[in-house]
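Methods — Computational structure assignment.
A single polypeptide chain was analysed. Its primary sequence is given first, followed by the predicted tertiary structure written as structure tokens.
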Amino acid sequence: MKVTEHIEKLTGPKFSFEILPPTKGSNIQTIYDNLDPLMEFKPPYINITYHQAEVDLKQRPDGLLEPRVVRKRPGTVAISAAIQNRYRVDVVPHLICGGFSKEETEDALIDLHYLGIHNVLVVRGDASQLTGRFITAKNGHEHAIDLLKQVVRLSLGKYLEDDLENPEPLVFSPGVAAYPEKHIEAPNFESDLKHLKAKIDAGAEYIVTQMFFDNSKFFSFVDACRKVGINVPIIPGIKPVSIKKHLNILPQTFKVDIPPDLSREMDKCKNNNEVRQVGIEWAIQQSKELIASGVPIIHFFTMGRADNILKIAKAIL
């Protein structure tokens, strides 16, 4: 079932959960250990992120450093299939531009179609940790809208090879990401909104937002979207703070503001356990206000640990 179809049928507060693939060398049981407790909330679907290869600097025998490409979190397609099979729930694997050619993307979409997976979230991917800027893969997509258009073309039966005999359409329901406080690389909010509208016009069926900690910014973002003709479902993304370093890391990495009330409470904390509790309490109040406003579903970023998400969800219901 499409994400949009799930949303149309929802009654009462509902949650979706986003998980990270385990790091290379870890067991998929770590995924199950986090998801098992959350399944009591009957999520209509679960998102699985995709991570491009990262570049580490490795010291050579002569003392010089050389870049080494490593994929630290492989397995998104396989994990999607495993979760779908174990929990009998729809999954939404993420598709990214970074690190993948158009051919590799097409092959991944074919694999997903064979597995009966038809929902995807289309994102560009993060900038390189070494250079601070996004690097396009050879014969890959530079922007998320180009990746989105490839997904839409496949839904029309248009493959990269134009000489296939009677090609079968691979129908997908694509969503895209958005930033209530503006993408870090966008020159201004108006420009960011213009690019988002282009993605909707190109075929995106719903929006999932980046994290935010001030609901007024989400409400303003939704109003701005509606004014420019973006009428698809807009799903708020919530990530509770859990460590004191989030005070600096999150604003720098994601260009999100930490409200003064929240930062003051975090400053009072003596350790990360206390910060985690502050994050839980803040997210509970955020979520209650969002539900009261009529959002269709709340999307929780679990980031590899679900104990705090479990407490938040229990407090809301």
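Note: The chain is about 40% helix and 15% strand.
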